[in-house]
Amino acid sequence: MGSAWKTMWLLALVLFGSWSVVMAADASPVGLVAKTEQATFVIAQNDLPGLQARLDGLKQQVSLADSLTQLVSLQDLIQTYLNDVERQLSALRPLQAQLQAQLGVLGPASADEQAPENTDIAIQRIHLIEQKDKLDSSLKTLAGLKASATELTTQIAALRRSLLESEVTQRSNSILSPNFWRPLIAPQPQDRQRLSAVLQEIGATLASVWQPGQRLASSMLLLLALAVWTQGRRLAERGLFWVCIHRMPEGRLRRSSLALASILATLLTATCALELLFYAVTRQLPLTPMLQNLAEEIEKLVYTCVLITGLSRALLSNRHPSWRLPAIADPVAMAMEPFPRILAGVLLVLVTLSQITNVSGMSSQAVIVGRGVIALIVTVILAILLLHISKVRKAVADSGEAPEAGTTLAGLMYAFTSLAVVASMLALLTGYISLARFITYELVWLFIVFSGFYLLMQLFKDLCEYLFSPRQASGKALKQLLGIGDARLEQVSTVLSGAGRASMLLFALIALLVGGVGTTFGQLFAQALEILGGAGLRKLNIIPGHLLNAVLALLIGVYLIRSLRRWLDNEFLPKTAMDPGMCASLSTLFANIGYALVILLALSSLGVQWTNLAWIVSALSVGIGFGLQEIVKNFVSGLILLTERPVKVGDLISISGVEGDIRRINVRATEIQLSDRSIVIVPNSQLISQNLRNVTLGGSAQGVATLELTFALDIDPEQVNDLLYNTYCEHENILDHPAPFVRFSKLTPDGITLTVTGYVSSPRVVGKIKSDLLFEILKRLGAAGISLAKPAAE
């Protein structure tokens, strides 16, 4: 009895639990999901005033900005603002689509008064319409905010260009004038006060770090940051070098990987050291807005200096000359080694002092002096570097060794740098200080961009050569997967490597045009997307995220077409009753249609809207009318040849004096193989529009072996007739049906002409059989004492 009660209770609990789950599942779409959507929508609505206030504040700051540094910082803030707005838009668009779908399910309100609809449905429709109206309004507001922020970005770019032009063209005292150095020797009282205020804020921050009870922790953090930058960098380099040496294949890929490992180790350790240093300084007292701005600029400067030293160390590789990527002689590389560290140290110190003068709001004369000092010292360092390298290169050349393999590129680099150094020095002497500073900064930025992208392009090239090498496991797997040969695999490697390096070169050009010293990778990437993803791509509805889908669709489609064509050629078509020519035509037609469909599928995956391609169709129509009509005509003729099949692969044809076998019918032209095994390319349109003799079209065509011989007048015609007839009948390749025959052709004063004709199984063997018959006839005529007629003497 107790067991029965327990079983009943257990059954009741199971039924109750199942009912609860079902009810919860039924209620979740209406309850929990609706509440979640409503909460998300309420949050989005509450963010709108804050976003509007942020945009108004950014506009006010842009209107008050009077330096390039401030505009660059504001540009970063606006980009962050745009990301926040886009995040809100992405969160609300699905809700809008869902509300529209729910309204579609409910349908429009019933207009029939005799059949009123359910009250709950009407209330729910009204509620959904209200929610959708509010959501549409919020989306419209967010779109307006995004448009305003985008326009503000354009205005900042215009302001930056205007400020740069005004600064570059501004003329002040020359560096030879005592008035130029006066703000440095005898600064103005206002400049002293502003500089003192900044130094007091810095002192207060450092005092909070070094106060009693915090000195040990601060010292430990500083020592840890120093250890990370010095010993940590060496350990990171050794670890990455070990991975490259033991895990990367021997050759160029290992060498370029080692160079990249050196830069990565430098950047990673520098980042860790900076984070530790920043934490040590700000863990007790947060930075003021002025010091926060200064810290951000110094951070960019530090990364610039780290890139200078890291790239130079990776490309020169003086400790391991065999790892060196550019073709630079060892003496030249050794001569260049100390200069990047000197340049980085000078920039770190001088530009930091210049940033302090900028954030403190000192007078323009003091700012100009700071720019002049930076430009002068950097120009002198670069001039000494060029003179020293020229001296070493001359010594190397005198010794008989070429300093660089690529002398043209090296010569252009030296010439350009020398001209820039001369221009900078002339600007300093004539009073164009900002222009000189701009030239020196651009030289430093050019070195960073050129070196960095040179390393990336070399790495990408070596990686493509390794992955697509027929001797490597990856290349063998690709050959087996795609069914291609070594030559085609090398072509893929070359094309992919060229396309990748061309893309990197384009990005490098954009970096040179829109970037500068202190520009971050995020800013470069945003500028590149803005340039490359402009109005042209937006009109075609090409989204960068769809590029991967299009590439995958293209690769998979081509692979499937090739696989199916191999299956047709090797498995299916040989088992049918169709002749080889028909099989080849069907295979070619299938491949052409398949490739066309794959291209359409790739364009569809890319997001291309065909309504936006009207200009492409117009351009094609103009091109067809002027220069592409022959190509189109041959293409259409090729399709006709593959469908109607007046000729097919394997037919023996004769056209315009060309006679041979058809080997292949391509999209544009047909390949005809002559008797000497040479190939004649005939456009498809000629096979359609001209008179063509197809010897084997009927499938049972026979060849005709005809010989015409002239004998003297005194021969016995019956004897010669029997001799010729018996020779033909006794030859094994002459058919019995139709039987061979001898015909009296003509009688002339020179002799009697007899024609003997016999049929063979194929036109392709006529030449050989006629040769054999002629040899046999001459042999029998000689044995019978019968000679051919001699031509009459003129």
From TrEMBL:
Ranges for domain Mechanosensitive ion channel MscS C-terminal: 709-787
Any GO molecular function: mechanosensitive monoatomic ion channel activity
UniProt keywords, alphabetically: Cell membrane, Membrane, Signal, Transmembrane, Transmembrane helix
Membrane-spanning parts: 257-281, 339-356, 368-389, 409-432, 438-457, 504-522, 542-561, 582-603, 609-628
InterPro entries associated with the record: DUF3772 (IPR022249), LSM_dom_sf (IPR010920), MS_channel_1st (IPR049142), MS_channel_C (IPR049278), MscS-like_channel (IPR052702), MscS_beta-dom_sf (IPR023408), MscS_channel_2nd (IPR006685), MscS_channel_C_sf (IPR011066)
Domain named Mechanosensitive ion channel MscS: residues: 631-696
Principal location class: membrane
Secretion signal span: 1-24
Entry GO CC: plasma membrane
Pfam families (UniProt xref): DUF3772, MS_channel_1st, MS_channel_2nd, MS_channel_3rd
Membrane topology term: Multi-pass membrane protein
Compartments, record wording: Cell membrane
Limits of the Mechanosensitive ion channel transmembrane helices 2/3 domain: 588-629
DUF3772 domain ranges (all copies): 144-199
Family per similarity comment: Belongs to the MscS (TC 1.A.23) family.
Protein name: Mechanosensitive ion channel family protein
Organism: Pseudomonas kielensis
